[in-house]
What we know:
Layout: H1 2-15, E1 20-26, H2 29-44, E2 49-54, H3 59-64, E3 69-74, H4 81-84, E4 91-94, E5 107-110, H5 112-115, H6 122-133, H7 141-150, H8 159-167, E6 170-176, H9 185-191, H10 204-213, H11 230-243, E7 254-262, E8 265-268, H12 269-281, H13 285-292, H14 296-322, E9 326-328, E10 331-335, H15 345-353, E11 363-370, E12 373-380, H16 388-396, E13 402-405, E14 409-415, H17 419-436
Helix pairs in contact: 1-6, 2-6, 2-7, 2-13, 6-7, 7-12, 9-10, 12-13, 12-14, 13-14, 16-17
Amino acid sequence: MLEEIKKTIEKLDSLSKTKQIKVISHYDTDGITSAAIFSRALQRWNKKFSMEIVRCLDEEYVKSLPEDKILIFLDLASGSLPYLSEKKTEIFIFDHHELTGEIPKNVTMINPHLFKEENISGAGICYLFAKVLSNQNVDLATLATVGMVGDQLEKELGKTYNSILNDADVQIKKGLLLYPATRPLDKVLEYSSSLYIPGVSGSFSGTLGLLKDAGLEKKQAYPSLAELTEEQMANLITAIMLRRIGGGDEDKIIGNLYLIKFFNKLEDAREISALINACSRMGYPQIALGFCLGNKESKKQAEKVYIEYKQNIAAAMRFINETDKIEGKNYTIINAQDKIKDTIIGTTASIMSHSPLYPEGNVIIAMAYNKDKIKVSARLVGKKGRNVREVLTQATIPLNGEVGGHPGAAGCLISKEHEMEFTKTLQNILEVEWINV
């Protein structure tokens, strides 16, 4: 893949002497960090370019793109090849999603699926591009780490990711997958949405009881996860596991904590990822991008947006807990309609998929209105079970919808007029699939 990246750099360098560059990137954490890495690399390469952050690629948007510019797509476009084949300009794609067709002649693609390499995030691919371009760009490895965490690929570390982490300014510590790992434990446990603990999550008294059982005492403040000794971490994990009986294997809640330097302060990469994601999903991708590029004003704005985002998530989870659901063996479908923002429906589905209320193998599907469309997010609980991207594809293709994502986390967009038909079709597919498993 590195050899292909070298050839791609030479080709892009030649074409950019006569054509301007337009970069289009996805709006999630991986897409934003990809955009930050790529834009910084282009800037240092003295290339003029424009940047746009988008939620998805549809046929109408692709048709609207200029043909007098080089088009570069980051963290998306592998599923839009038929649309791109009709563009009369050179196109470059740096992506890691599954391909859905033949690569057109006008498209140059860097995608690990083409090289049978480990799955690395869009930000990881963009970092490899930047590093091959110039060793000056090694400082961008930290952003690649955030993109990796944002796409939940940190448990699939191979040779490529280990080399990226070696370049990054990152401390790795084994511990509880609870963020932020750099804040006092009492607040993190009480307000966490990443790890549900019965009787503790959302409860001040329950949190204090857990910390007491774990033998952790408050001095000036409770310690953070990053400050715990191995013995303290083990005691805390034991106390949590006792409250999560039936919640699944220990390895679901234990893993690597990635501590990075951001604005000269030690931060949890998961928290940084969540903040970036929050800005985009609340409609402020430009703030997220500025934050990644080190803009201090963007940092202030991002922190305000993050607070509002967490309030929206809390309201969404209250709605999900109270609303009726379509449930069957190994699946749950929630149709939030206009009660939850379509930009956070995927986050709510992810939170549900990490709850001990749903056993491994369950499929969580959440739906929300997006003007005249419906945004659908699917998540697999645990690692073993159906390929949720295939499930959505079967239900969506007859309705001319758009599908993207991975086997464990995918999404689609369908017309609102197909709401009932889609839900019924989806239910039938899930019933049949699970009977056959």
